Amino acid sequence: MSAQMPMPVLETRFDEAFGGKVCHITLNRPDVRNAFNAELIAALTQTFEALSGRQDLRVVVLGANGKAFCAGADLNWMRAMADYSWEQNQTDAKKLADMLWTLYQCPVPIVGRIQGDCYAGGMGLAAVCDVLLASDNVTFCLSEARLGLSPATISPYVVRAMGEQAARRYFVTAERFSATQAHAMGLVHEVCGADELDTRVAQMVDALVANGPQAVRACKKLVRDVAGVPLDEPLRNETARRIADIRASDEGKEGLQSFLQKRKPGWL
User: Is 235's pLDDT higher than 50?
Assistant: First the structure.
């Protein structure tokens, strides 16, 4: 009798309703609340590296199976790290940092579907999403300080997502906070009932796919490039160059002409 094949830590599905141009990535370690281990970190890195090279891709939906979105680090993984040297800890942490950077650099929008509790490193995953939708029963927590640690690797993304003032509190207190509180601080874009979550995710995907494919990519990059940059002449010149580039592109011309002619643009 053959041994049962292990379940993949990550599920990947291309939505045929959109010609395979929308990809659903689902964390699949529900028995351990989708906690990180080396295998899951590697799978996320490799998957998003591949997706980032796909020119036809329009949207990625990042979700999870089970009761939790992601509970942070896997206990067995943490036990293995307990006796690591500084060098081993640094190497291990760099893999998580590189994984988050790979997701952050993905050229198409990532829609986060947060259906369950989101703790520690899971908040790093949530924070790199461009649009974050959460069920109203979700609890968030930056729990590292409770374990004598700090959320250093995820901090660049979490601070940007929730704001410095909120981070000053929740980094040091390790308090749990609700989806409603996460929405109030700007971390979550929308909160809905658990039975409405998939509908709202589908509506968000529809909204994104309706827009110009290259325009969406340009808009995502624009936010990243201008956030926090001084409002000086080089920035004014750069933004003027970017709008000229996109107006003169085939997609920009088609979008304007379709609007003036009151017809659907070619990408639809």
Answer: yes
